Every structure is written in structure tokens, then in C-alpha cells.
Amino acid sequence: MKTPKLAYVVEDDPITSSITKLILRKSLACEKVQTYANGQRAFDHLSAALHNGADLPDLIVLDLNMPLMDGWEFLDAFSGLPLPTSVCVFILTSSIHPDDITKAAHYKEVHGYFSKPLDDHNVERMQRLFQTCGE
């Protein structure tokens, strides 16, 4: 079973961020989880890691509604990065608007769209979807 070595949780709500971090460690057996309160911080760190040859995430769990740089802006910037390997992106949001779900499907990096809060069914779905990321 493939497991993420490094995951980013990009989420402005500290409680959701902490719970997601615990779920990634426990249910997806993720070795290391880094949390970012907005897309700008995550993007800056990712860009620096890419530039410096540091570890890149295997998985990014991304909220859509955040200050400074929201999830859509992050995805637009992220899509332009010359990443050497694919990174699996899961959207975790409170939005159940059909337009958001449709828009997310247009990003090749997005492999799953999940509604908050995560339940057991969606965690199992995350596990299955992660197995197919990068194929």
C-alpha cells in the first residue's frame, strides 16, 4: 500500500487543520505533515523546497476559502510549477456548491473533492484515491 511521505494541510481553521493532520498520520500512515494557514504560505514553502531540492509533498489537502491566497489561487499558481513528480491534491472544503465541484475537476492535480468534516467513508475514499495518484 502506497503511503504519503510528506503531506501539506492548507487550512485556515486551526481545529480542522489539527484533525486533518491526525487523520493523515493515522489513516493514511503519512510520515510527516506540515500545516499552513493559507495558500500563500504553502505556495512559498513549496516553491522554496522545489528551488532548494528539498522534499516535496506527495499529498496536499487544500481548503478553498482562506485569506491571502485562497485554494483556487493556490491551484492556479501550483499548476504552473515545474514539479519533477506528480503531487496528489485533495480539496477539503465546506463548499458543496456544484460549480466548485465542477471547477475542481478541471485541475489535473485534483484527485478528490471532500466536504468537511471528514467522516470514515471519505477517509477510506482518500486512501483509495491516493493509491491511484500519479498513475
TrEMBL record:
The keyword Phosphoprotein applies. Gene3D superfamilies: 3.40.50.2300. It holds the Pfam family Response_reg. InterPro entries: CheY-like_superfamily (IPR011006), Sig_transdc_resp-reg_receiver (IPR001789), TCS_response_regulator (IPR052893). Keywords: Phosphoprotein. Residues 6-131 form the Response regulatory domain. The modification 4-aspartylphosphate is found at residue 63. This is Response regulator. It comes from Hymenobacter defluvii. The lineage of its organism: Bacteria, Pseudomonadati, Bacteroidota, Cytophagia, Cytophagales.
